[in-house]
Amino acid sequence: MNSPANITDPLVLFMPSGKRGRFPVGTPVLDAARQLGVYVESVCGGRATCGRCQIEVQEGNFEGFRSMAATMALAMTLTVAVAERRDKASK
Fold this sequence. Notes:
By secondary structure, the protein is mainly beta. The protein has one domain: Ubiquitin-like (UB roll) (Roll), CATH 3.10.20. The protein contains one helix and five strands.
């Protein structure tokens, strides 16, 4: 689990769940999501080979930027949008 939060660590807020937490600089967004219990699709297990872990920065210096959660590391406070979970039955 995540070590005790330091007030200077970047805050990440996941939408639409509203879950948030502080993580050390350099923590992959996918790891932060997993530690907070936020579902981010990642068929490849976070190896950045499937492209399914797409997120969009909603607030912060890179607003509107899209990236894979497996490759984007926290450097500053961010609000990110995560695609809602797809049910196999709805395909």
